[in-house]
Amino acid sequence: MASHASVPTILLYNAQGYGDKVAAAFNATNPGFKVVPYDDSTGPLFTKIQAEMAAGSPKWGIFWADGATEFAALDKLHALATNIVPKAASYNAAGMSNVPADGSFAPTGLTVSGALCYDKVAATGVTLPSKVSGLTSLPAGILGMNDPSQSGPTFPLIAGVMAHLAGITASMKPTNAQILAAVNDGENFYLKLKKNGLQVHPTNGPTLGAMESNPATLDAATIQSSACYGDINAKPKSYWPTGAVKYLDYSVALPSNLGIDAKLSPALQADAKKFVAYVLTTKGQLAMQHGDPYGDGLFWPVIKGVSPESYLPNYSVTRAYAINPYVWGPLENTINTWFTQNIVN
Question: Full-prediction pTM beyond 0.85?
Fold first, then answer.
């Protein structure tokens, strides 16, 4: 939040492929201050924000990433400015269902985590399951996923599996005993996958790379929908012409969100809210889509009057399961640590 040539700047901790382009489009028409992107994966950015908070010297001003759990965890620590969702935002039903009561973070788009992406050649002869529970019965070593400590879409997937196994819906207020039982069931599920040769790569890119290599070192993976569609539909030439996406009995809803540091000055908070408002206009949504057309831009819009890219199926086919980020967000560090110690290592 330094001042350069008398123009205030706000640091955007950005885990979105379109973030830099959207910031540039915004800055071009808002000369009073400048949004400066700092790019990394969601996990490292979330860790950085927590470290800055612990040190009492936050550098970030706006955080943009997939998933709501990190934002809910920060909100519970009173680290986010509240009421940042602009009244003018024309949310559709999917968007409204992901707006928190205190308006401390603003949904900007929807993808899902847990789409079963697979290589049609590598998986020849393999019977893919119709349910998530069936993943444990796949041939040994052919399934992969991302590392939740690095990949933003992955912790919500793990939390969603835990919630679904225990029947904990987004509208429930589960007891501690119910949450512990859900976590235990989920841990046992991932331990079964590990025993069956689960491959864990850091993020979408390396996981896709393992499926796209010739020969493929991975047949299938439960990852983020937009990443799979992006590589399959890339122009002028597909990165993954033999790739395909299958939806099982459920995937996990993954809203992307913007949050603002509560410690920003009132003037900079007002400026940051202007950026949020821009993203939630038709122009901002199109800047997201065009900013990363074969990657994060392949989201289902949360704003009325904006259409998803033609490569995407109807959102209903994803059978997206919603989780309550305020239940699961505070458990993120603990569950990710368990995953690192027991599944990755």
Answer: yes
